[in-house]
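Structure first, sequence second, as always.
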């Protein structure tokens, strides 16, 4: 009976786990937490922008033009495009010279699917937020899209009037991350191009 008791005590000691002295707050766990907070914050901004666009689609009726949806709004930050939709500001006369140039600009974004590029760039930047090159690539991609759309918008029209339009509206750009806004902050570079 003594032998069985000693044997049972030895087995119980082998089975019971050793006490864990490691803290949950290690350097690696802190780095993972910081990374997760950064991703969560940036993805929240992207989702917020997508929800804003969804709200605009529900709030304003769309006019179908072939495969394009045209929303006439009175929202600040318009006009802008997102995938196959153009969100227009009703304060901007569509049939004016400026209105036609802006429409051509936004139509170029829609035709060349710049929203897909922008959305992918936003998601990749959110995932790899700690790498500054992703932020630079996103910024340059945005600038290249604007240069190409500007070139299309001014073909056959007055370049100086278009440059004046860019300068006049420079401070009225929208704040939504995944949309293609006509009014951007690359004014000097856009005019030079």
């Amino acid at each position: 009976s003594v032998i069985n008791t000693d044997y049972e005590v030895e087995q119980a000691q082998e089975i019971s786990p050793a006490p864990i002295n490691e803290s949950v707050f290690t350097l690696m766990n802190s780095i993972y937490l910081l990374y997760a907070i950064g991703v969560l914050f940036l993805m929240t901004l992207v989702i917020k922008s997508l929800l804003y666009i969804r709200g605009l689609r529900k709030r304003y009726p769309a006019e179908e033009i072939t495969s394009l949806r045209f929303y006439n709004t009175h929202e600040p930050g318009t006009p802008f495009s997102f995938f196959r939709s153009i969100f227009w500001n009703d304060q901007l006369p569509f049939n004016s010279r400026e209105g036609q140039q802006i429409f051509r600009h936004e139509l170029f974004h829609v035709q060349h699917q710049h929203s897909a590029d922008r959305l992918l760039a936003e998601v990749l930047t959110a995932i790899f937020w700690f790498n500054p090159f992703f932020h630079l690539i996103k910024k340059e991609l945005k600038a290249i899209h604007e240069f190409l759309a500007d070139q299309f918008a001014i073909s056959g029209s007055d370049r100086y009037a278009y440059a004046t339009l860019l300068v006049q509206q420079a401070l009225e750009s929208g704040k939504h991350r995944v949309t293609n806004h006509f009014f951007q902050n690359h004014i000097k570079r856009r005019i030079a191009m």
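Margin note: Strands lie at 62-65, 68-73, 80-82, 85-89, 180-181.
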